Amino acid sequence: MTPVALVTGGSRRVGAAVALELARAGMDLVITYRQDREGALATCAGIAAMGRKARAIELDLAMVTSPEAVAAQLSLERLDALVLNASSWQGQAWQSCSHQDMVTALQVNAVSAVVLAQAVRPSLERSGLSGGGSIVAIGDAYAAGTPVRGYAGYLMSKAALAQAVQQMAVELAPRIRANTVLPGVVAWPESMDEATRARILSRVPLGRAGTPDDVARLVRFLCLEAPFITGAAIPVDGGRSLR
């Protein structure tokens, strides 16, 4: 049977690139979105153009608290890969990062990932893929020991996500693998000016930005071609984490 992947936040940027790459690799897709329904439908249309099945589901990660409720909402007959891509990205000064800001970031970027994994565990355990079912989380290279001023809540939550995935690798073995991809600069924030971009790239050994497709190709590898890799956290950052 055709393998199926669920990609959260599949309406644009990295999530859309991942969904399209998995479709090219022969998977059917379920993608989630919170607000960008038009973008989600565009991703589904791109997947359908490849001859693969796709559907979009509205899902607010801030409300993902019950595995049973999420499983009923998703209504998945089968699942072979879960890609935890959707996240909340917000910068703010350290002193103005409130308790609620931090709790919300942790819920959206880390806690919801665990609840989703709990919800789809039975389906992933039945996967017929080599190596079993796969969970891949999209983390952040800057949450792995290179803190950035003004992003405390976000980076704390992404660090929690990386730890949660390693916990999944232990808890869900041997039928499910769990890994984290750590992107650096692969999709510029639209508000960032050229001077800031140049300053960031000056610290990247490869001297350039990556692309969402760089992340997507690694996700595809981990889902479909890496049956003996679990618990890994792999940077896709042009070497930035080395400095």
Q: Name the poorly predicted regions.
A: none
Gross morphology is globular
CATH architecture: 3-Layer(aba) Sandwich
Q: What is the CATH H-level superfamily?
A: NAD(P)-binding Rossmann-like Domain
Q: Number of helical segments? A: 7
Number of domains: 1
Number of strands: 7
Strand order of the largest sheet: 3-2-1-4-5-6-7
State mean pLDDT (0 to 100 scale).
94
N-to-C SSE string, H for helix and E for strand: EHEHEHEHEHEHHE
Structure write-up:
By secondary structure, this protein is an alpha/beta fold. The chain has one domain (4-242): NAD(P)-binding Rossmann-like Domain (Rossmann fold, 3-Layer(aba) Sandwich), CATH 3.40.50.720. 42% of the residues lie in helices and 15% in strands. The protein contains 7 helices and 7 strands, in the order E-H-E-H-E-H-E-H-E-H-E-H-H-E. It has a 7-stranded parallel beta sheet with strand order 3-2-1-4-5-6-7, sandwiched between helices. Strand 2 (28-33), helix 2 and strand 3 (54-58) form a beta-alpha-beta unit. Helix 1 (13-24) crosses helix 7 (212-224), helix 3 packs across helix 4 (99-125) and helix 4 packs parallel to helix 5 (152-171). The protein is globular and about 50 Å long.
